[in-house]
Amino acid sequence: MERLQKVMAHAGVASRRKAEELIAKGHVKVNGKVVTDMGVQVGNSDNIEVDGVPIDREEPVYFLLYKPRNVISAVSDDKDRPVVTDFFGSVKQRIYPVGRLDYDTTGLLLMTNDGELSQMLMHPKYHVAKTYVAKVKGVIYPTDTRKLDKGIVIDGKKTSPAQTRIISVDKVKQTSIVEITIFEGRNHQVKNMFMAINHPVQKLKRETYGGLTLEGLKPGEWRELKGFEVNQLRVLAKESQQNKK
User: Fold this and answer.
1) How does pLDDT run across 195-227, given as a tens digit for each residue?
2) φ and ψ of 91, to 5 deg
């Protein structure tokens, strides 16, 4: 589900601000009823009309991008830096990233125009697994990673338990490679978790998201998700929410 004005904007009816004006003035119906509330949420099955004309909503599309370094996880940037939608010039639909990866972080990023699924995957109550490989400063030991596995307090709030595995340690260069799986999506979470145990992240790559991988892709390349993969994401999100209860 997502806000009515956002759906209208995505459908090309008007800007979000203009869509809000149309709603406020009673020009919009949802399932045959006039709505004037800005907080109305609609799903893919709802029928939306503007002045009696049904809006032509885009067919939902789903993509997996191997995000390179130094690219913004956004549809535009006021500093004119590269953004993830730059890689999708051949895609007609207005897509956007599900969540974000930091400017200097690489790896798997989902792109879609399906606000309902996007909101589900990003909502705190749904805990879909995301696996990263981090190169961190210093020699890391099991005693360090156990702190992450138990959950660690960041900004006054404890993280959910993680799953970590030490891949390698370079005592000469004083660096370590660690795989970590988290089930949340706080801003800069992985970097902040390692910083909290005094092992700052030097490089970070998201390897998997809800069972999806980067197999066959190089940085900057993307592929369309198959139907069963989209369904898998929905199932994983719903199962994680049920298991949390």
Assistant:
1) 999 999 999 999 999 999 999 999 999 999 999
2) -90, 125
Q: 219-230 b/e with 16+ CB inside 10 Å = b?
A: eeebeebeeeeb
Rounded Cα–Cα distance for residues 72 and 201 (Å): 19
Give the tens place of pLDDT for each residue, 110-163.
999 887 788 788 877 778 999 999 999 999 999 999 999 999 999 999 999 999
Let me know: does 219 contact 106? Beta carbons within 8 Å.
yes
CATH of 130-209, one of 3.40.190.10, 3.30.70.1560, 3.40.50.2000, 3.30.830.10: 3.30.70.1560
Active-site residue flag, 37: no
Apex CA 174: angle with CA 168 and CA 178, to 5°?
30
| CATH dotted code for 2-54 | 3.10.290.10
Specify the fold of 62-125+211-244.
Alpha-Beta Plaits (3.30.70)
What span, in angstroms and rounded, lies between the C-alpha atoms of 223 and 66?
Answer: 9
Q: What's the CA gap between 41 and 43, in Å, rounded?
A: 7
Q: Which of 78, 102, 114, 170 is catalytic?
A: 102
User: In DSSP terms, which residues pair with 137 in a beta bridge?
Assistant: 175
Quick check: 132 and 207 in contact, CB under 8 A? yes
C-alpha 172, offset from chain centre = 36
